Amino acid sequence: MxxxxxxxxxxxxxxxxxxxxxxxxxxxxxxxPGQVLKVMATDRGxxxxxxxxxxxxxxxxxxxHEEDGFLVFHxxxxx
Amino acid sequence: MAVEQQLAPFTGxxxxxxxxxxxxxxxxxxxxxxxxxxxxxxxxxxxxxxAYPPLILATTAAASGMDASVFFTFYGLNVIHKDYEHKLxxxxxxxxxxxxxVPMPNFVTGLPGMGPMATHMMKSMFKSKNVAxxxxxxxxxxxxxxxxxxxxxxxEVFGYTQDDFIDGVxxxxxxxxxAEARQxxxxxxx
Lengths: 79, 190
Description:
CATH class of the largest domain in chain B: Alpha Beta
Number of helices of chain B: 8
Strand order of the largest sheet of chain B: 4-3-2-1-5
CATH architecture of the largest domain in chain B: 3-Layer(aba) Sandwich
Distance between the termini of chain A: 28 Å
Number of strands of chain A: 4
Strand content of chain A: 25-35%
Order of helices and strands of chain A: EHEHEE
Number of domains of chain B: 2
Largest sheet of chain A: 4 strands, mixed
Number of strands of chain B: 5
CATH topology of chain A: Translation Initiation Factor IF3
Radius of gyration of chain B: 24 Å
Oligomer: heterodimer
Distance between the termini of chain B: 52 Å
CATH superfamily of chain A: TusA-like domain
Helix content of chain A: 25-40%
Shape of chain A: globular
Structural class of chain A: alpha+beta
Number of domains of chain A: 1
CATH architecture of chain A: 2-Layer Sandwich
Strand order of the largest sheet of chain A: 1-2-4-3
């Protein structure tokens, strides 16, 4: 599997709605435009919430996949 | 006089072309969504279970880059009271949807001790699933810039003073809420 470069990793595993999104939004503030955040989550709601959040905020969801028991999202900060 | 006749001397375009341009411009404007990105939510209930939805939606709205405000009125004032930890309880009475450890007729839930038991049960259920606490949600809401507004009128009806509420709470009336809400894309009454 191709690996996506990331500048920051957020471990939101074990957290439920709305915390993965709240923490993603906060982590995004640490990044410069164009940098990539990797989010790890176990909340199944994230499968729809992370893409929806990206659409609302204008950030770009590069890819997402499932690893052993958790979800991985790569989000690029908008310009 | 037809639109075509009115505009043709100035632009050299016919009606069909003008309509298409207007349509394109409208679509582009709607896509850009330059409208106010605001969420104005009313929180009117003072139980633990009902404290969650307005706080979850407001923090998520703020995390999504929206200006979010929650207007706490009537029993909703419990949520931002300094003693919310004790004030927010769950009542199984009249709520047949409340999961109980053993099946029981709803009237039994009115017996002494059932309320505290239900409250304890819900808190431990949330804890075991790792749901954020009301404390965490309030903290994150304020951190993300959610405006927490107490309804001045109900505050006075219940005999509260401004000191009864957590730090950072604002105080306002219905007109102030509506001034926010009329510019909001999202308005909810919880």
